[in-house]
Structure formats: C-alpha cells, structure tokens
Design goal:
Layout lengths: L1 E4 L2 E4 L43 E5 L4 H12 L6 E5 L4 E2 L2 E2 L19 H8 L5 E2 L4 E4 L4 E4 L2 H10 L2 H4 L11 H16 L1 H7 L3 H24 L10 H20 L13 H9 L10 H11 L25
Parallel strand pairs: 3-4
Antiparallel strand pairs: 1-2, 1-7, 3-8, 5-6, 8-9
Helix pairs in contact: 1-3, 1-8, 5-7, 5-8, 6-7, 8-10
Bound molecules: glutathione.
Length: 324
Amino acid sequence: MGLLQDGVWKDQWYDTKDTGGSFERSAASFRNWITADGSAGPSGAGGFAGASGRYHLYVSLACPWAHRTLIFRTLKNLEDHISISVVHPDMLADGWTFDQNFDGATGDTLFGLQFLREIYLKTDPKLSGRVTVPVLWDKERNTIVSNESSEIIRMFNSAFDGITGNTDDYWPKELRDEIETINARIYDTVNNGVYKAGFATSQEAYDAAIGPLFDSLDWIDGLLGARRYLTGDRITEADWRLFTTLVRFDQVYHTHFKCNLRQITDYPHLWPYLRALYQWEGVAKTVAADHFIRHYYYSHDMINPNRIIPISPNPDFMAPHGRG
Ligand SMILES: N[C@@H](CCC(=O)N[C@@H](CS)C(=O)NCC(=O)O)C(=O)O
C-alpha cells in the first residue's frame, strides 16, 4: 500500500505520527460531476454529460466506498451503460492491482494495465496523492471524472435518467437536509468510525473512535424501531451508505478492526433492517464476502502481520426480515 509522489510510487502505510495515533482519511482529488446535460456540477469542471457507454467504473468488491457506487449502478439500471473493472482484493506493496487470480477480479477490461495507479497516471504523469477506489473514468476525454463515492452515487442517481428511464430518487429534495444530518453522523462515527478504530495506533485514538461508533449503532437501532428506513418510509442514499458498512461488520470490522462490543446480529432492529436491504432487488449480487474477508485480513499487515484469516460468522442475510 502506498501513494504517488510526483508520479513515482512510494510504498508506505498511513502516517498517524502527527495526529496522536489517529487515522485521518485524505480528501478525494478528482471532483468533477457527470450531469444530464454536461453542465458543471457542484465542483470541478463541466463537459461530462450522461451518455451510454462513455464511462467506466473501477471498483474493489472489498471496499465499502466503491460498493456504494456498484449498488447505485444496479439500482439505477446502469449496468448496460457503465462498464466496470474489479481489482484484486489484495492491496499490498503495489496498491490495488489488476491481477486476476481471484474469482471476480476482472483485470483492467479497458486498457489491460497492471496497476490501478497507472489509471491515475494517465491523467497526469506527475500526479501526487493516494490511489483509491472507486474511480469513475471518462473514455471520451480519457480522464478521471471523480474518485469520490459520495458524489458518484449522486451522479448515478440522476444524470442518466433520460437514458435509462429509471427515475427512482434516492436524494429527494424534501429529505435532503435530514439525509445530510444523518450522513454526517454516520460517516464520521460508523462508515469511517470503524476505520478510525481499526487504524488507530494509540489507545487514546481507539477509545475516541469506539465509543461514538457503538453510540451511533444504538441510536440507529432506536430509529429503526420506529421507522422503516433512516429518514422514514422512503429508502434514500443514507440507507445505502450505511448498508455497505453494516454488511461487512460481523465478518470483518468486529474482529479485524476491534469493533467487538457487539455484532450487528445482536441488534433487534438493525439486523432485520440489514437483511431487508440485502434482499432488495439486485443488491445481494453486489456483496462479495470473499473479497472483503480476504482484503482486510490479508492486506493490512500492520494490523494482522501473519495474515491469518480467522474463522468468521456466516450471518443468514436471506432469512426473512419481517420489515414489510
Ligand atoms: N473518499 C473516497 C475514499 C475511498 C477509499 O479510501 N478507498 C480505499 C479502499 S476501501 C482505498 O482505495 N484506499 C487506498 C489508499 O488509501 O491508499 C471515497 O469515498 O470514494
């Protein structure tokens, strides 16, 4: 695992020395938006119009952020319009690679390259920064549109509606304020909270992450006792953003990231809710436990130096959920 410095790959782990042992996620570097008519979005440059066959998505099936984009590609019927490449689950000295010796790792189906960093370097041979998934690539302008999953899902939510005819809206105007409030807490304490606990290199940093994580899970469990989805009767992006963390929790975060106060299967409302989302049409096929179990335990050798993959529980995501 590493990063690019002036176009040169350097193999190094996250630096937590200057932050008292706390992991801080870097901001994504490509922030353009695909819009229906190609006008500029909330950030970046314009010129990226929704079009069939123009865009390509690079994902890891292990990564919760990339997983969001895959779910939206499915929910919004974009599979025939946006092609994908799936990286190998191991993220070692060369970062994400296009090795194909793992079921479901497709290689780079666009250029046949070996490393994900080579896709980043196509935008600028002197690029500096982390090489992360997901990456949304524009085949027409030969550049990265975006590598920020929270923005890619909003593009998928609306920019291709004229092409697919699918107008399902997971970011409805009237719920935006509430979605943002819920997203902010869940991002900080749950989605990124598990990483803050897992990547902490001091007891203080771990303690600062683990309390808020389980406080938030209790809060969400309470909410879901009174409503079907996070904002009420209607499923929104807030639910899908939470889902990709919940579905990895018992098999990975509980043990590997030391989030072991409780499992999701212990919660009276969260667990049936997780099953309901898993059983949503098309979603189960986006969940690849073999990729995420292998990725985390095998790639993070500073957490698990002997790369022993523990026996994991096997929650029955297909059991009836009883949530209507
Ligand atoms: N802000 C990004 C974060 C993506 C991210 O951190 N992806 C991880 C995989 S789960 C990654 O590629 N990490 C490689 C690295 O940090 O070097 C997003 O949400 O799209």
